[in-house]
Write a structure and sequence with these properties.
The protein is an alpha/beta fold. The chain has 19 helices and 14 strands. It has 3 domains: 131 residues, Rossmann fold; 102 residues, Putative Large Serine Recombinase, Chain B, Domain 2 (Hect, E3 ligase catalytic domain fold, Alpha-Beta Complex); 143 residues, no CATH class. The strands form 5 sheets. A 4-stranded parallel sheet has the order 2-1-3-4, with helices on both faces. Strands 9-13-14 form a 3-stranded mixed sheet. Strands 10-11-12 form a 3-stranded antiparallel sheet.
């Protein structure tokens, strides 16, 4: 009695439960075998698309047929066996060698010329159906992308809200993804230490494991988090309807760390002023080292006049520079009054800035439209179109972020200046109570120059900290209350000019009205 293999296949797990499922196909094949007195000696079940080559179970079945493991194979329909012509050609070779092939749902006699022709035609139709289906699916996907909707599962940090709807920020994982970008931008983490920290705070894979290096690379390079969608081998960008999770400036900062060869490394001796103190003669960074319980910073340039300086000496000079920058409660109250008046003046010019920012976004949108028209008119090739469009979309994201910054009340110059005054109300105390890495960040932000010439330590403040320190010294030396108030008003105007640059400061008319 002849022996046969039974082969059943579905493309996905979902199809295995719905439609012509595996049990239904198997029942039809068993009924066909009983009706024709055929014996099934082995079953081959597969959940794999027949479009691509290399189905493991199908390949194993063909190998068994070639070795004579059975006289033939019974499957549900032709398209269950092959949807590409190469697999069908392999089956044809086996049929030519005498291997029988039966279809439980189709009456086709492959031993006759007409039956073989009919089967070949159906195989070609099945392959063409797949090609057409692929084109329609791709067309639908790119249609969704053009509408600003991501047609695939949401990346980590976002939630799916149904077909045709933009992704929404995950209230749980969204802040964790934002923290991942923020941490990596500090340059204190490499991929290994960042994955460990993210695992600790709760950002993990779907199986609860640490994020891999590839996973972190994909996450940190994904422009989806700034409202752009990147697809295809050409990295084509589309503008998304979803809300951005991080600002464009932070994304650019992370890209600088990723692609600027400034990846963080594990540091065994993380001295407080590491790579921050330079030699005033040769310009090279002083190297920290510990000797007899003290930390010294040495210049290793041969013949340089600078030898070494103790860390305590640098700390003393930092204290001397930062300590004057402080305000008494009464001074803070007076500054708050000045700030309130400046905030009112800002309202007069804020609408002009908003209008200008909106015009900038509209101008970029118009350039995008002209670029698309140029592509349709064949004025440029598709590669140039993709490159220019990608550049314009990044430019638009920056312009939109600037518009959001100007529009948001919390990020107006008055708001930024108010936060700065709170932070600088006692700058030395803030520095003294900070953690080592926080001290480094504060010094990097507040100082523009920290160098050693011989044995002398020079620390220079950058704007706007220098403005505060200088005027605080004048206030301490002022003989009268009127001069104190005049000095504070002058300081506020200098600070206001700093925080409104490059934006327009209050108009001359507004200043005259205040007087």
């Amino acid at each position: 009695m002849k022996r046969y293999f039974g082969y059943v296949r579905v493309s996905t797990v979902k199809q295995g439960r719905e439609g012509a499922s595996l049990p239904q196909q198997r029942a039809a094949i068993e009924e066909y075998a009983r009706h024709h007195n055929l014996v099934i000696v082995e079953w081959f079940e597969e959940m794999e698309t027949a479009v691509k080559l290399g189905r493991p179970i199908f390949t194993r079945m063909l190998a068994a047929l070639e070795e004579g493991g059975a006289d033939g194979v019974i499957t549900h329909k032709i398209d269950r066996s092959a949807r590409n012509l190469r697999d069908w050609a392999r089956l044809g070779e086996l049929i030519d060698r005498g291997v029988e092939m039966h279809f439980a749902h189709e009456s086709i006699d492959l031993t006759s010329r007409g039956g073989r022709l009919s089967a070949d035609i159906q195989a070609v139709v099945a392959a063409d159906y797949v090609r057409n289906l692929r084109q329609e699916v791709v067309k639908g996907l790119y249609g969704r992308l053009a509408q600003g909707v991501w047609p695939w599962p949401a990346p980590v940090g976002y939630l799916n809200r149904g077909k045709g709807k933009p992704k929404e920020i995950d209230p749980v994982k969204g802040p964790l993804v934002r923290e991942a970008f923020r941490l990596y931008a500090t340059r204190r983490y490499n991929f290994n230490s960042l994955a460990t920290e993210l695992h600790r705070i709760g950002l993990r894979t779907s199986t609860g494991k640490r994020l891999s290096k590839n996973g972190l690379t994909h996450l940190l390079n994904n422009p989806f988090y700034i409202g752009l969608m990147r697809v295809g081998r050409q990295n084509t960008l589309y503008r998304g309807l979803h809300d951005g999770l991080i600002p464009k400036s932070l994304f650019d900062q992370v890209q600088g760390v990723l692609h600027g060869r400034t990846n963080a490394k594990i540091i065994r001796h993380d001295f407080l002023f590491r790579r921050m103190v330079t030699c005033g003669y040769c310009g090279y960074a002083l190297v920290g080292e510990r000797q007899k319980g003290h930390v010294y910073y040495r210049c290793h340039t041969r013949g340089c006049q600078t030898r070494c300086v103790r860390e305590l000496a640098i700390q003393a000079q930092v204290q001397q520079i930062l300590e004057p920058a402080k305000f008494e409660p009464a001074e803070l109250a007076a500054l708050s009054e000045e700030l309130a008046a400046l905030r009112d003046e800002w309202v007069l010019t804020r609408e002009d800035h908003i209008r200008s920012a909106r015009l900038a976004v509209a101008a970029i949108d118009e350039r995008l439209t002209r670029l698309a028209d140029a592509l349709l008119d064949l004025a440029i090739d598709r590669e140039s179109y993709g490159q220019r469009r990608s550049s314009l979309l990044h430019e638009r994201a920056s312009a939109v972020e600037r518009l959001q910054v100007i529009t948001a009340e919390a990020t107006t110059p008055a708001g930024d200046l108010g936060k700065f005054l709170e932070q600088v109300s006692n700058l030395w105390l803030t520095y003294k109570n900070a953690l080592p890495y926080e001290k480094r960040e504060l010094l990097s932000f507040a100082t523009s120059n920290l160098r050693v010439q011989g044995k002398n330590v020079v620390v220079e403040l950058r704007e706007p900290f220098r403005i505060v320190a200088q005027h605080c010294k004048l206030i301490d030396c002022a003989p009268s209350q009127d001069e104190v108030r005049a000095s504070m008003k002058a300081m506020m105007m200098l600070l206001w000019q700093h925080f409104t640059t490059p934006a327009v400061a209050p108009s001359t008319v507004a200043r005259e009205r205040r007087r």
